[in-house]
Amino acid sequence: MNVPNTITMSRFVLIPLFLILYLNGDSVAALITVLLAGATDILDGYIARRSGQITITGIMLDPLADKLMMLAVVSALLLGGKIPWAAVAVMGFREIGMIASSAFFHFRGMKTVPANWLGKATTVVYYGAIMLLLLDQPGGLPILWTGIILSFLTSAIYFLKFRHLNQSDISGRA
């Protein structure tokens, strides 16, 4: 396991830490944990690209860690009464769909699509919403809905890129 993948794996440990902190009423420490997870996301990607250590494992684990952290945060915010069920349902549907389809296609030997700038922008919007929601500041919910809309646009772009990237594999199997 290389350094970027080890950093990515650390994000999986931060998920239960976030939940423990948030559910025990320490929103600031929970927010710091989420921001630390975001920093490790930036760091592992930077190191992987800079040192030429991009791996299939990293391409799969990185978005999985991000999605699981986001699902944990959204679940906690729901339990805390800060976001409605509708937002959770829509986000959960999208995230679970992305995880399942990514795993399905990966195990079928198809190439996966790395993150693009719109996916990164969506993550920034989500982090902004999370900060506002965890700190009980106004505007968090409208920003969250903006992130949700962006996430579906991002998914559509990923699927188009995936289809294009794997077009010869898809045509050969038909």
From TrEMBL:
GO biological process: phosphatidylglycerol biosynthetic process
Protein localization: Membrane
Bilayer topology term: Multi-pass membrane protein
EC number: 2.7.8.5
Main localization of the protein described in the UniProt heading: membrane
Domain of life assignment: Bacteria
Catalytic reactions of this protein: a CDP-1,2-diacyl-sn-glycerol + sn-glycerol 3-phosphate = a 1,2-diacyl-sn-glycero-3-phospho-(1'-sn-glycero-3'-phosphate) + CMP + H(+)
UniProtKB keywords: Lipid biosynthesis, Lipid metabolism, Membrane, Phospholipid biosynthesis, Phospholipid metabolism, Transferase, Transmembrane, Transmembrane helix
Stated name of the protein: CDP-diacylglycerol--glycerol-3-phosphate 3-phosphatidyltransferase
Species this chain originates from: Cohnella candidum
The organism's taxonomic lineage, starting at the top: Bacteria, Bacillati, Bacillota, Bacilli, Bacillales
